[in-house]
Amino acid sequence: MPGRPRDVSHGSLMPVPDRRRITRFRTAACLLPTGIALALLAACTQSGDFGRPRTGVWNGLIDTTGSFSTHDRGRLLLDSGLTDDEQALRDRAWRFVQPASTFSAFQDAVLGLASAHATPATWRVEEVGAYYATLTAAPSRSPVSRYRQLGDDATADARLIPIFTALAARVIDADAARLRSLPFAKTLNDADIRLAAQRVAENRCLIAWVRVEAGLRLARYRFALEHLFAEAPAAESVGAERSLTMLAARRNLLDPLLPPDAAARCGLEPVPLPVAQAGPLVVKD
After folding, report:
1. Nearest to residue 113, comparing CAs of 79, 75, 68?
2. What is the CA radius of gyration of the chain?
3. Under 8 Å CB-to-CB from 73, ≥6 apart: which residues?
4. Residue 246 and residue 284: Cα distance in Å, rounded?
5. pLDDT for residue 33
6. What are the two backbone dihedrals, phi and then psi, of residue 253, each rounded to the nearest 5 degrees?
7. pLDDT in tens, 145-178
8. Alpha-carbon gap, residue 133 to 232, rounded angstroms
């Protein structure tokens, strides 16, 4: 029957919910304490473009998860298993942003971002010239080999992004379905709802972290290429430039996934100060 939801797991038609009951539920949900009400985003808000939550809604979710207790944050990993896509997302992000850390330490860092907006212990915004300094640390290395190393590093990063982006998009869609289901759930308690909100925030902050890191690497590679060419122009610079162009194009794939201020909301970047609106320069009579 058109317009009637189907339970795809059992192939049977689901009963159409009582709209009056849903309206009462939404009203009650919006009056709950902030931590619970914001977890019920699907009930209290409308979706933005393509069914994704509006920017303000997502910001509220991230802000709210910062108030969760340590006990709640710890339960997230103990009591709630990851989906296959969530696990794959974490595996790929780990290799991209913290390959030198254990997976457990990486997971703790992601959890801290989402729940307390705490910058990871190993996180540091290196100077844009840090990669160049490492690349040129060995004086015996030829300019040709440096160009090739730069190109190889940029290409390797560029190849990781499309797969990660596809995984992230699927996780975001699954999170949207998770949030939409909350108003219809009858057996979830407050802790279950908080964990659902926390998981969504964790996924978003992980994606934001990768997006920030990809941008930082592109800036470091660009700095290195420009300084290498100023010191020792060589034909191999063309290949390195192409690798950077590919990385820049693929870095842009990450932008539509999250609002622009996602990294700031997760504690990875300073929160931008509001720009004061100046009055008109010319006032017409």
Report:
1. 68
2. 23
3. 111, 115, 116, 198
4. 50
5. 39
6. -65, -25
7. 999 999 999 999 999 999 999 999 999 999 999 9
8. 15
C-alpha dist (Å) from residue 155 to 82, 108, 244, 246, 271: 30, 29, 7, 7, 31
Give the whole-angstrom CA distance, residue 107 versus residue 209.
12
Contact at 8 Å (CB) between 196 and 178? Answer: yes
Spatial CA neighbour of 217 closest among 156, 145, 270? 156
For residue 130, with 0-12 CB atoms within 10 Å meaning exposed, 13-18 middle and 19 or more buried, which class applies?
A: middle
- One-letter amino acid identity for 175? D
Closest by Cα among 214, 213, 206 to 113: 206
Query: Residue 91: pLDDT above 70?
Result: yes
Q: What percentage of the chain carries pLDDT values higher than 70?
A: 62
Alpha-helical segments (H) within 98-236: 103-116, 130-135, 143-181, 190-231
Of the candidates 126, 169, 144, 159, the one whose C-alpha atom is nearest the C-alpha of residue 231 is: 144
CA 170, CA 124: separation in Å to the nearest integer? 29
Interatomic CA distance for residues 177 and 51, integer angstroms: 10
Alpha carbons 17 and 7: distance in angstroms, whole number: 13
Place of tokens 């595996």: 91
Torsion, Cα 73 76 77 80, to 10 degrees, reads 170
SS3 at position 123 = coil
Instruction: Report the half-sphere exposure of 44 (CA within 13 A, side-chain side).
Output: 18
Positive or negative, the CA dihedral 57, 63, 66, 69 is negative
